[in-house]
């Protein structure tokens, strides 16, 4: 029997104990044995101990060995380096191509799968750091129970373990726990590490150059004049030009560009012509194509002429001569090759006259040219002689005109004369040299916008020129084109183009601003360069199919690294690459074998006699009571001289003496912590020692919170709620074609939220699984089976999940196996959840309302420029093709639209952000719009209204054989209208065609086709406004059967249409070919004719033919297939346009319907352009309430990337969650944890307390050296043994309730299994 001692406080205890013990040599010898010298040699994974026995070494987990931890350092270092490399690759290569798999699962799951595997590996490092830390603490020094035997880092939450480890300065546990938490966060971030987004990338691919330059083709259109002697231009020109140009197409196209604002044709820009490119095969997603192309660049160098003395001007121009002098050319009294035109402005104050000419100037013989350049003979020098320096001159004189000068100056014989009394006030002249270069430049074609752009700053190689075409020849060809056009009595001339090229439209025909030298110079440069480009494009470009190298900007979905996730993960991996080193240098070997099994605890306890004595009869204490029992004691691991590894309590067991005073005090409060150090002699006043039962104050069993009903309910409710939530999200996603519009933030936050929920469910399952796994040995000990491997040797917590599952299945621990499977599935939840969200292009449709921003003005127009602009545009479109301007489609004129109002609240915000930008693929609208359609209603009967005069004896000016009798209400003005035509009896054409306005008024020889007197509108309403006559082939006498005569009424229809179009700000609310997606649907049944607003009739009188006649080519008398045609310009366009109509199909009374159709179609094309002008289309001004804004209803459809729920991932998650619920519920039902243990079994003292009274720890059962042996050796010791956990009936047992016995793990059959079946009932299941 041990001697009792007086218990003093710890401080005084040590102060009194140490001096006495230090003088005890026996004690010093034992204490010295605690210092265990280490050898660096390894023997089968154990660290050798040279002081005692070479074949015994302290154990270290393979997960904590140097090679493993260095491997983790390498893994984490490689991870953050790899992330940085991937990031740089992402930047340099515009992301990662989805070439391996277009499925989002491959890249969504990949990073998360890798992190999940790394976490499972690090979990083992973390576990063994926490398991071995108490042993390391006791190995290094004697320490109190709270830092050794009772130290538990395994069962608390990670954050609590991190706090406790940091407080205790257990840096290995701090590092492992922190690493585990960091990896969890990194896994969460990895779910959105790679994100797909549309990306523009450049790809090298072959392109087709579909055109090429051929200067030989130029000379097919431009012929030297001496080869065409049948042409004579000296009607309005002083002399014939050098060339005859067979097509006026370039002039018409350029005129439409500068006057009507039409875009440049493909292959041209302002002064450049280039070979266009195409992709040989369609590649999806191409937005821009770039290739090196040959570019013809105009080089117009203009100089301002020196002022000519005033006294020479009048005499020179009277003789058709001019003088010009520039720094590089001096030409005196040269013959003016062009025309001289005088423009009088009588309404200005003072009245002035501008005399101007555009002519060629030969500077070849000039001896005063500065810096002369050597001449180069051209290939056509045999035709034209030596190469000459031909330039183009623009000369303008401004004269003030006396008051008596007539208002109208139209006498053609005075074109070259300056009126008497006119005073020269200003002179301006510009001389331009025409040149060009050929070079290779990058050409970019924007396929989304249909535009081309040249980078003229990046020339490739040297420039060159054509072998057979000089700049001077191009200049003469341009002059010939303009002169030839002017000779045919067309109004377009060089000065008209220069005036139109100015940014501000000049009023009327005012050329005054062109008198400014700089304005004249810049305008001439622009016009000559642009006209030359159109000539080269139409005359020198021929088809081609050459293959060349190009670069395409392709829009494709590529993976990009999410920056916030990247840097967070890089930081995490950098920290993780340091933590294994901290563990390596902090962790020591402190235990003889793997201490994770019950058998290992029994083997070590068998050698620790004092500890066994200290823990005797403590098996039923709760953790707090056990802490009190062991409080104030120091514990240290040691190896004695026989090589036995044991735990040494410093001192003996606590001697709480049962004095009456102590018993009374114990009833009031828990006993104080006392020392177990033996000091002082035996005190006879003490009647007995205190027993562990004396400190017990709590009854009942212990069960982890994670398997209690509230937590289990929560663990099961989470997956069930997640299943319902996933289904709800999926249904909403399907119903709304996605949950929300996708952008970077939405996608990232959705991924984070989903991963967090998956983590929460997974962590909950891990907590439940930990409880089942930690109780697995004890549930096996409480079972009626006799397998020792299922209980004393098993440790499911410290194994890799697959191996733990195998062990559980092998040992028939079904509940634990189900829990492990549930936890495994839970660990994969984050992986599957990372692929839950998918960006899908969706077509969304919403109702909308748009209003008109314009109204129609149908009064008689006073601005002739609108008609002229429309006529020029029609001329170009009719003869040379192209798209109609915005605001029109075919025969429809649409109002200006604005004010998009989305009727759907659901999509209003999304549409407001997406449908008003300049996205290459904007929103698509379908709108019910009322449009205008001009209509020419022609009639040919009754016959008595149309007749042909039979008299051929009148003079040519009176010969009007085509006559129309007007309706009765029109006869008050003029009873008969004679259709004007310019033929005569001596001309005898074979075919006659005329298209004229009905002039209601006195008949004169000058048949004015346009009258701007608005007062006539009220008097001629309801009368025909256009007359058409066509006949042929004509014989010697005119007959009615030879002619078709039509009286036509101009009308306007309002038609209801459905238009599908796109809408972009640059369109300014106008609909047209560039934004209408398909031909509008016309509801013919809803068509109505508009009233003219004067007399309520449906007829209108738009006097608009004069500009049209002047803009269309005038063929005059033309021989075609042996027949003489006398067709006015309008009729010539009818029969000689793109849709060629045979003359015979229009002639004769029996073919009037075909004639009506042709006339109406052409008229409609023209009037559509007229009505699209600003004079007709009045735009609503801000605050102007007088203009009624119509509202149009429709729908808007837009393609948007929507965040959708992936059905496969959703279904997979639902199946997994449902499986988790079933498995967790079955595990909870199969595993009986309630009433099994009195306390948490995760500390050393807790397990050893269950073994302290067991025969397993006796030397009869556990031979010496067992604490050093492995699991196989221990298995042999326990083989055939029946080891159970329960209540044992022993004679020396203490009184527990109504039963004497002890609780713990022992060999044999207990009285009852487990601690208790329910709270308050001490006996467990009957064995």
Could you walk me through the main structural features you see in this protein, from its secondary elements to its overall organization?
With 1327 residues, the protein is an alpha+beta fold. It is 34% helix and 24% strand. The strands form 10 sheets. Strands 4, 6, 9, 10, 11, 14, 15, 16, 17, 18, 19 and 20 form a 12-stranded antiparallel sheet that branches. A hairpin with a 2-residue loop joins strand 37 (1117-1120) and strand 38. The radius of gyration is 53 Å and the shape is elongated.
Overall, the morphology is: elongated
Task: Supply the helix-strand structural class.
Answer: alpha+beta
Main sheet attributes: strand count, strand direction, barrel closure? 12 strands, antiparallel
Oligomer: single chain
Annotation field: number of helices? 31
- Share in β-strands: 15-25%
Number of strands: 45
Query: What percent of the residues sit in helical stretches (DSSP H or I)?
Result: 25-40%
Low-confidence stretches: 1-54, 366-385, 407-416, 653-666, 668-688, 950-960, 982-986, 1001-1019, 1292-1299, 1317-1327
Mean pLDDT: 75
Radius of gyration: 53 Å
N→C terminal distance: 35 Å
Give me the secondary-structure topology.
Elements: H1 10-22, H2 25-32, E1 42-43, E2 46-49, E3 53-58, H3 66-92, E4 96-97, H4 104-140, E5 143-144, H5 158-167, H6 171-190, E6 194-213, H7 215-221, E7 222-224, E8 243-245, H8 249-260, E9 272-274, E10 277-278, E11 286-304, H9 310-318, E12 321-326, E13 329-335, E14 340-345, E15 352-362, H10 381-384, E16 390-400, E17 423-446, E18 451-454, E19 460-464, H11 471-487, H12 494-501, H13 517-540, E20 541-561, H14 563-586, H15 598-607, H16 609-615, H17 623-630, E21 634-639, E22 645-649, H18 660-668, H19 709-735, E23 740-741, H20 744-781, H21 801-810, H22 814-833, E24 837-852, E25 854-856, H23 864-880, E26 888-889, E27 892-893, E28 897-902, H24 905-914, E29 924-939, E30 946-948, E31 962-965, E32 976-978, E33 991-997, H25 1017-1020, E34 1026-1031, E35 1043-1062, E36 1081-1089, H26 1105-1111, E37 1117-1120, E38 1123-1127, H27 1129-1136, H28 1152-1171, E39 1177-1179, E40 1191-1205, H29 1207-1230, H30 1244-1251, H31 1271-1278, E41 1283-1288, E42 1294-1296, E43 1299-1307, E44 1312-1313, E45 1325-1326
Parallel strand pairs: 33-38
Antiparallel strand pairs: 1-2, 2-3, 4-20, 5-21, 6-10, 6-20, 7-8, 9-11, 11-17, 11-20, 12-13, 14-15, 15-16, 16-17, 17-18, 17-19, 21-22, 23-40, 24-28, 24-40, 25-39, 26-27, 29-35, 29-40, 30-31, 31-32, 33-34, 34-35, 35-36, 37-38, 41-43, 41-44, 42-43, 44-45
